Amino acid sequence: MSAEYVVKMQNISKEFSGNRVLKDVSLAVKPGEIHALMGENGAGKSTLMNILFGMPAIWNTGGYEGSIEIDGQEVKIDSPQKAMECGIGMVHQEFMLIPGFTATENIKLGREDTVPTVASRLLGRSLEELDRKKMASDARKAMDTIGLGIDENTKVGGLPVGYMQFIEIAREIDKTGMKLLIFDEPTAVLTESEAERLLRTMKVIASQGIAIIFITHRIDEVIEVADSMTILRDGTFIDRIETKDTTAARIAELMIGRKVEKLVDETEDHRELNKDDVILKLRDYRVDMPGETVRGVDLDVIRGEILGIGGLAGQGKIGIPNGILGLYDSSGTIVFDGESIDTKKLGDALKKQIVFVSEDRRGVGLLLEESIEQNIVFTATQVENKFLKNYGFIKQYDHAAAKKHAEDMIRDLDIRCVGPEQPVGSLSGGNQQKVCLARALTLNSKLLIVSEPTRGIDIGAKKLVLELLVKLNRERGLTIIVVSSELNELRSLSDRIAIVSDGRVSGILRPDDSDADFGLAMSGVKVGGADDGKA
Amino acid sequence: MEKLKASMKHVNIPRLIIILFFLLILLLAYINGIDVNSYIGSILKYWGMWGILVLAMVPSIKCGIGPNFGISLGIVCGLLGSLLAVEFGITAWGDAIMPGFGPWAAIFFAMALSAVFAWVVGVLYGKILNCVKGSEMTVTTYIGYSFIYLMCIVWFRAPFQSGEIKWPIGADGVRNAVSMDTSFGEVLNDFMGFYIGGEKGIYVPTGLVLFFLLCCLVVYIYFRSKSGLAITAAGSNPNFARANGINVDKMRIKGIAISTVLGAIGIVVYTQGFGILQAYTAPLTMGFQCVAAVLIGGATTGKAKISHVILGTFIFQGLLILTPPVSNKMLAGTDISDTMRQIIQNGVILYALTKAKGGSSNEE
Amino acid sequence: MKNNAETKISFGSYVKNALFNNKVIILFIVLCVACIMTANTSMSYIASEVFSRFGRNACLVLALIIPCLAGLGMNFGIVVGAIAAQIAIFFVVHWGFTGIGGFLLCTLLSTPMALLFGWLLGILYNKTKGSEMVTGLILGFFADGVYRLFTLYIIGGVIPYDDPNLLDRGFGLRNAFDLSDSIKYSLDDISFVTVFRILMIFIIVLQLVSLVMGVKKTAEARRESLIKLVSSAVGLVLSFVLMAVPGVASMIGGTRIILSDTLRIAMIVYVISVLVKKFVFRKDVKGEDMIKAVVIAALVIGLSYVPAIRNILRSISISACTYAVICLFCFFNNWILDTKLGQDMRTVGQNRIVAGSAGINVDRIRIIATCISTVLAAWGQMIYLQNLGTFNTVQQQSNVGLYAVAAILVGGASVQKANNKQAIIGVVLFHTLFVVAPLAATQIIGDSAISEYIRMFICYGVIAVSLAMHAWKKKDVAVKGAQAPISNVEAGEL
User: How many independent structural domains does chain B possess?
Assistant: First the structure.
């Protein structure tokens, strides 16, 4: 304990194929300190932690720059094993537990205590017998440390989620020489009381001299439990502050920060929006989408507007459109243009002219092996019977018409490709997104929902896609909902922005509202709405 | 250079080996002075006979279920249809209406009836397969197997009355080999059949080949219709299909039902070509042979085209027909072809499995 | 009162649960009983048939357990193990070795071959994760073809080879192999007393080695192994003394041992072992367990004197050594699973991702599990063949995987979970059905040809149903599993 800091990361930089995701970031944690690592999605939190944990994803892409010191000693952590040897543990977001095993077996997973046998002497250590007694007593001890009272022989399978997380923690505690424990968004999956218990446990662990890095976006939790925090934004180090010196609003402001770049050029706006002319009305709307659960949303979309839906990952914003389209089970009322939508009936929304461009481009949005032409016209053939020619009793695919349409789209949207026959799987992300949009434009739509329109595409293509959306809105009068985790993007093109937190709308803001308001809304604090917005 | 490397990666090695092997056998046949012409005739015949059975793999692969190892379900339906055509004496009825029409009436009756059976069976089968997504190949194999043995029990005591079908000793049940001579045996083969190069030349079973190609055309047309496009989309990306309002499960049922119907029609055509109807365990390995043929043609467990069927069946059957005479000549009177079929057929399937979607879903 | 009611309810649901969990077994018991009742044959015939089939088949079925627990499903690929055994037998017959020596040589030859085949099979399984079972099945056919090519065309054809014992037509092995002059009954004929002595010697050596090597760390462990050593030595001496007693010598010295004797000896050993555990090793044995042991032993021994049962038991004689080997296989399975390797296998079997993140080399573990299974299958096939005494050169191995898998599934195993008990019960039920179904069919229809179809239908039906049920459940779990947090959906960072 000679050094002041358990862990000291200095001037860390990291590039992924030319894309700089971390620039000169530093992080330092004292023994027994709970240190929060905060930032928006894409701020570089995960990358930083992956570097600290020696993940192969870092080393396969050329390593990092900067230095890491553990207890004052400079170390090179090039594998998770090495990280564990250095006394770094990680409590994963996805549980690395085996339901069919007992708590003991899970805690000791891969590190079972064994006793040698004759066979193991002759044929290698893997034939040593398990020392179940010692395993059980170690597990008991670790569980007692964090106040987990269940029997160590219970099967993990039937336990509530909160207990599982505690077993994960017990596993880390049980490792010898644990100095630093990383919690990756641990409260995201917990109920309120479970989360409270977890925070208490973190304090207990810290009181034993183990440092904790706590990755989260919940500002209230940070204020409650953390001693200090490091804030990242866009891969740069913003500040290291002590909790006692700051306020929630200040933290929120630091996390969001105003970005100066302008994503969409000003266009003439001749729209007249009538805020009573509601095209889509959601009431007590819930969606059971794993990881993006929607827990009761009330939202009105005004005809002709661009509505942004923002919020942090996992809070439920993605669930809203997926539920409307019937891709996940949902409940509550959805009234669209005077008609209610039956989400149980697959394709009902599509028939009523709601068109959705999915965030999961490769998984849901495209037929990767099929041609551009197929991808553009497919929905139209199914929903509107377009591009089908009648040959008496059988309708045949009209290749000529489809090809012509595809070529038009390729020209209009500037899709860079060899021709309409090229399989979309071989296109770049931006061009794939344009194909998705082209498909949406092929349909007659009253409402266009675009989810994560710019994810994974480069900056030039980004601007093009966003401008296309604005153009559609202005020229065709199309109502558009844009769901995005990039706040900056939403603020450049939306009329109003609904922020979703914990499956509910925590606020409807104007694009020019203050950063602090956005920050607070994102961390779940209800803020004054912009319902009277710009109409 | 880079392109060459990339394209090398996509080359299906076993397929290449088999095609080279086929060419080698062809060469050896010429060198050993075997009358290849007479064999080309039987290659054409077996190509037509097997073609539709192999074609049955296309809908099941396209709808996302993968090669239909359980094609035996369709085969059994086809056998039942054929037997009923014999039982009811459709040939005699047909001849009564118009002489010479009998066999045609019988074969179309058999096809229609077995297609109905196969559709019903296929829909039920599809429903089962929808419950076991991800393990279709394993489950189809064993369902196919157990169904064949179940039907063996049925055949054994089925109360057929026709003397053609009953055991020669007169007991109830279907005999091992039912002759089709008096019903629709070779009716398609002989339709417009002709010899190239005189009586000793190549016999071309025109009707059979035309019917096979017609079936190919029908399947091709179907998969360009709205519903066919939907099936293909459901197979290649179920999530995409769902987002487009397509009921994936329904499409899978449709695909497997079409496959089963093709299997049923396929076995009727096979039986007419073979001249003998074999019930019992004869269909046991047919499924594997069909899967292997379409894979040799260039299909994978996730993608198949009509051209794969046409090419694959030709190569596989050609290989099986040319090997016996060649090995007979070279290895002094032994027939190695069955062993070779076993190795090629299963080797090709194994290779496809290692490249399958299932293989890439390594971490579930 | 309230307590009572609760226990009653829980007892009711316990019975219901037990019935439900064992539905497959119960179904087959009912089927077996129905067949036995219609078959109209003597029980002793059925019992002796089942016992001899059990001795032949049990080891092959036990070979399936380890890959099953390692997440490979039902290993249809044990066919390659059987092939290894058969190739070894060709060589041994060719060289003219006979008796137990020949058998041991077979073991020696087949093991490296089985390891090689198992290794290749393991690699193949690693390339087809998720569809191991259909791969195993097809690989079985493929290996069949290659083996046929080897036996029928390459031996004597391409490879010059001359042995009138083996060759039929100048090349290619003959169709049927008669082992009566070589290794038939080589294992079965070892007497009980010899097996006992070998066991005692093995324990003595094991304990000596472990004491010398210093494996035992605590004084208690050392004391334990000393006791084991001494008592084994006493047992060894005792076996020589007892052989001097005329009655006993005929009972345990012959090539077979009568079932009733076996049962009584087993029960006495059972009681003694429980007592020893309690009083000599001071293990934590509950009083009720001791009472249970005594009661069961008394009951079994008592029943064995009931005339009807006694006649059956006396009419059956079993081979001590083969049954000892079956026990050894069971013991081996249990032991492996209690080692670090076994724990790794179970982890891999439950979840490959978690196993990988816990630092376990998943692919390697899967290959090891396949290798173990293949070697056990090779040995199992040798035991099978030495008992049968004759085999069909080309086809003998074809259905090995099918029958073994069907048997273990009948015993209540699933694709993911199997244990020794299920294997043993499965073999008994499956082979009972195999024996009585044809008889019953003959009684009902007057024709036994149909029974072959019934048998095969049962085999495939059992497998199809259990695979379908497994896939169904898996889908369920997958849906539930998806409810668990998916976090990286939006983490655009990595």
Answer: 1
